[in-house]
Fold this sequence. Notes:
Jelly Rolls; 10 helices; alpha+beta; 26% strand; four-stranded antiparallel sheet
Amino acid sequence: MDSTGIPIVDMSKLRGPWPERPAAIHDLGRACQTTGFFQVVNHGICAEVLHGALDAATAFFNLPTEDKSGLVSDDIRQPVRYSTVSEVDDDGEVKIRRHVLKQYSRPLETWIHKWPSEPIHYREKMATLAAEMWRLVSELAEAVTESLGLGRGYLASRMDRGFEMMALNYYPPCQDVAGAVCCAPHTDYTLLTVLLASQQGLEYFHRESGSWRPAPAGSSTLLVHVGNYLEVLSNGRYRAALHRVVSRPGAAARVSVASLPSFAMDESVEVAEELVEDGHPPLYRGSTLSEFIEFLSAGTRGRDFMEQSLKITGHKMHSDP
């Protein structure tokens, strides 16, 4: 565990023999169950790939506005979409909280030609990162299902058919004397989210203390957190991690790249039958990513989808602020 309280998962031990792997599986399951956040080390993605992706993302956001205008859309169903999130303060001044580029990235050959063609090498660098992050997610999914007692290959075929979206965010330097929440508290729809960020700003909700804590960051640091669909699959054993992004006075611009993996668009995520037993009935309904996107397109928050569409009548979701 590092100084921020986030568990550290050593991928080399997950790849190791007995007794290293069983111990690492146990530690991974514990991290998913307690904080829902963990940092991965010895993940095998070289620093050049990580730095290159952050550089490419930064270069894209630094392009002139007119070079990005063709990607602007309010339709969240678009496979590549650029948007700006802003708010008006008490003095009527518009504060830009973040710029966002979301792009489908799996199957890569289906979507890469829709990605930005500028800056130069953008597609090459982001495609390399997307492939590496999917490899890491697939490996982690094996270990997570093993920690749940479902077996290493439980999700293999569904991951082969799986879907990935990349979310790139640019947070301008803080304009507020007291700081600002630039990305409101939320959970992700994913099984597991893998995040790379240029610097700190991400905070996670620490359940035991009921407080927000900073997450580590750096150009070679990869964070992983539990998403809504893993909460469903695990029948509530592993809870989706609540997180936000906060900008502090004097903070420099922050760039992040996240891999958001899930099952295929129309493949339903269900509670694992093996995790339903006397005293622990199914707590969630099944749903597809397509249904979730349609729900969001109506202007509703993702966590509300969990509350309104997935929970079984009489089940109270774990409450976080």
